[in-house]
Amino acid sequence: MTTWSSLTRMSLPVIYTPITKLQLNWENTQGGPCGNQYMDFMRCASRTGMEKAKYECKNELADFHECLRKGKQLERVKIMNAERKRQKRPPIEPLAKDIPERGY
Fold it and tell me: Which cysteines are joined by disulfide bonds (predicted)?
C-alpha cells in the first residue's frame, strides 16, 4: 500500500522559471522506466495541489509505486510458480541469449 509519507520529498514548484525544468530532473525518475507514471502523478498533483492529491491522485500514485516496486508482478509470478509446482510440471526453460558472448 502506498503511503503519503513517501511523497514528502516530492514537491511542486511555487514559481516556474527556466531553471525549474532543470531542477525537476535532479531528484526524480522522469528519465527512468517509470517516468511516465511519475509524470502522470505530477500532472494530477499540480492540478489539485499536494494536499488534495492525497485523495484525488491516489490511482496515479499507486501506478507509480507499482512500477517502482513491482509488487503485483512478483505476486503473479509466485502464483504461477505455485500452480506449476501443484501440477507437477517441469520448470520453464530460460530463454536463449540474443548475443551469447555478451550474456544478453
Answer: 34-67, 44-57
CA 87 to chain centre: 33
Looking at residue 91, the DSSP 8-state letter turns out to be P
- Cα 89 to Cα 104: distance, rounded to the nearest angstrom: 27
Contact assessment for residue 44 and residue 60, using Cβ atoms and an 8 Å cutoff:
yes
Is the predicted pLDDT of residue 86 greater than 50, yes or no? yes
Q: Find, among 25, 24, 22, 4, the residue nearest to 12 by Cα.
A: 24
Q: Tell me what pLDDT residue 95 has.
A: 78
Q: Domain ranges in the chain? A: 18-90
